[in-house]
Fold this sequence. Notes:
Layout: H1 2-11, H2 20-25, H3 36-39, H4 54-61, H5 71-79, E1 88-92, H6 98-106, E2 112-117, E3 132-136, H7 142-152, E4 155-160, H8 166-176, E5 181-189, H9 207-218, H10 245-249, E6 250-256, E7 259-264
Parallel strand pairs: 1-2, 1-4, 2-3, 4-5
Antiparallel strand pairs: 5-7, 6-7
Helix pairs in contact: 4-6
Amino acid sequence: MRKLLNRVLIRFGLLITKAPTILVEKKLPPSKLIAPSLTEKVKLQPAVEKSKNEIFDIFCTETKVHKWHHYFDVYERYLSGFRSHPIRMLEIGVFRGGSLRMWNRYLHPDSIIVGIDIDKTCAQHENNNQGIHVRIGSQADLKFLAAVNEEFGPFDIILDDGSHKTHHQIFSFNALFRNALRDGGCYIVEDCHTSYSAKHVDSPETFIEFSKALVDTIHEPYLGREEKAFRLGHMDALQEIELSYLSAHLHSINFHDSIIAFQKKRRALPTSELR
């Protein structure tokens, strides 16, 4: 009965299911391994200068766009390499359409920009002549996501700026990473600070906790194996290994303030060499 009640509470976002110390006590959990000097309180002041990159310049001339200023250096880091040729980008969350126009101006002019949202009024922001498309549906609807991928994908960039509910962030990643994201692509989830917001945590794990677990997934090849199993020329060196799809395709995970970027690239068997 208790489990059933918890499912109902999670369904409607009424149960905090993770990080109670952070959410209830509003402080970081203590760790005996962090040096006291590193936990000493220091003061932060507003930035002296604003971001100096082209995405931020475009943002400053657009209307109806809401972004944290510190995101723009992160965008530049992961998206600048996609500008030289037409790509396909999926943005979860359309809102007032400003970010779709921003990406359209920043990326190659022949790129396809697709936005999805549950709000039917967002359809007005579609502009087929400029390669901006909008589809109405939920980021937690598997059939809808598959249909969007069938129509426009696979994508080079997927950006989750949707509901920011933790179960939505996790669901969309699970649904899109394998089939909707190209090899060499980047999956970005922003506003991850909602993993520390009681009104957004509605899953057994926050998206931050989910992402931490994926760090272990990257290191799956080494579980139960010694270094010599990967050493070139060693008699016991492996010729192949069997891994989960995620481990075999997750090249890197990068954590930033409120943003996590996952880079996808088919991996080769790790090797070491003694010279």
